[in-house]
Amino acid sequence: MLRTLPSYLSLALRNLARSPLRSGLTITGIAVSVAVFLTITAFYGGYRRSLDRTVERMGYEVLVTAKGCPYEAATLVMKGGNIPMYVDERVFDELRKDPDVGAISRMFMQGTPAATGSKFQVYLGVDDAYLKLKPWMKLQRGRFFEGAEASEAVLGYNVAEYLRLDLGAVIEAGPKGQTVKVVGVFDKSGTQDDGLIFLPLGFAQEAFDRQGKLTGIAVKLAKIERMDSFIERAFEIPSVQVITLAQVRGTILDLVSSARIFITAAAFVAILVASLGVFNSTMMSVLERSFEIGVMKVLGASPANVFAIVWIESALICLSGGALGAALTIVLGRFTEEAVRSVIPYAPPGHIVALTAPIAFAGLAGTLGIGLLAGFYPALKASLLRPIRSMRGTL
Question: If we measure between CA atoms, which residue out of 2, 22, 3, 5 comes closest to residue 289?
Fold first, then answer.
């Protein structure tokens, strides 16, 4: 009677269209569950890639700061923030003599409330060696500082775009509102540097009344395998701590992974509830069409034909829900990303909710599996209906 897949699909779609409200609600339940699961999976993958890219683009492997919470200091440096801990410049003088140091740069980071009052504007005082750590940072226009005491600023790409500033503009820096002239704008790097205002180190220390103080010393080792021996020597310096960016990355990912486990468990519960909805919807459809199924069997439909039609109905419901869930993830991804950024302790720049094709296909394959599993018993029940009893209205 039915020998081609299009025939099965046509009948299955026609049966689903008979109860649009029930089918629509079932598909919506699947879609919401799949969207939650895909968002979690896309977030973890995107977050990990963005974090790896950020760590790689820091340009150094070791950060030396004042004693305190090491991970707080590291994340403040990575994303920009007001660091209340300082080390003396003499520490820099001591570290640069170390034989394992390949490149080293002083940093002085401070933040002040932005014009909007809702965010911090972050200033980073640097020396000439900073660009040696990050050779990919190129000036889009203008020049770098003329000297360590110059009243000049170089803007990160995002700062220049957001504040609509260009070469020659005058801005204020520090609690005293000292004026500086914009002499350069960096090209877009896709890192936290895009959101910073760079100042000459000496001028920044004076503007924030922290002469001779640093918030961090960035070290790029000559040989990465010599890291342990360098850290041992650096820890001998009083009042400082040594942080490796690899440790920071691992700690942040561990925290995110722990939260991901609980949220994923909740998503699986939602998917289980949605799959029960698919089972219930398909079973109700079989019971309502028992007379029709009996007529089909009398006209020559085999149990395999009936089984295939009902099973395909269940699969179509789940595939439709999976496709709708993937679409919701894409459409609402940016809003989800903003919400996630507001609650997690550190969010690297770039897209952290990135739905890739493999994740989307895996989600669709999973929903198809759910549909086949949830629809197996109703399809089996329909295939075993006895025509005479079903046409009499008894099962």
Answer: 22
Q: Note the Cα 132 to chain centre separation in Å.
A: 29
The whole-angstrom separation of Cα 52 and Cα 37 is 23
Whether the CB-CB separation of 377 and 278 falls below 8 Å is answered with no
Is the separation of the CB atoms in 28 and 277 below 8 Å?
Answer: no
Q: Does the predicted model carry a pTM greater than 0.85?
A: no
Phi then psi for residue 212, to 5 deg, are 75, 10
Torsion sign, CA atoms 308, 310, 313, 315: negative
Give the pairing type, strands 216-221 and 101-113. Answer: antiparallel
The structure tokens listed for 141 are: 């226009």
**pLDDT at residue 2 in the model:** 46
Pairing of strands 101-113, 152-155: unpaired
Q: Tell me the C-alpha distance between 109 and 77, whole Å.
A: 8
Torsion angle, alpha carbons of 87, 88, 92, 95, to 10: -70
Chain segment 221-235, per-residue pLDDT in tens: 888 788 888 888 888
Residue type, 53: R
Residue 250 to residue 234: CA distance in whole angstroms: 22
Provide the b/e sequence for 168-198 (b: ≥16 CB within 10 Å).
ebebebbeeebebebbbbbeebebbbbbbbb
Alpha-carbon distance 285 to 278, whole Å? 11
Angle, CA 223 vertex, CA 222 and CA 227 arms, to 5° = 105
Residue 395 has pLDDT above 60, yes or no: no
Contact 371, 315 (CB under 8 A): yes
Structure tokens at 368: 């198809």
- The total of other beta-carbon atoms located within 10 Å of residue 391's CB is 17
Instruction: Count CB-CB contacts under 10 A for residue 218.
Output: 23
Q: What is the pLDDT of residues 255-268, one digit of tens each?
A: 667 667 777 777 77
Residues 6+ away with beta carbon under 8 Å from 254: none
Give residue-wise pLDDT tens across range 59-91: 788 888 887 654 455 555 545 555 567 888 898
- Radius of gyration in angstroms for the set of CA atoms belonging to the chain, rounded to a whole number: 31
Q: Which helix (H) or strand (E) holds 363?
A: helix 357-383
Structure tokens at 334: 């940016």
Using the CB atoms, write b or e for 274-283: b if 16+ within 10 Å: bbebbbebbb
For residue 356, give Cα distances in angstroms to 31, 66, 109, 233, 351: 17, 41, 36, 44, 12
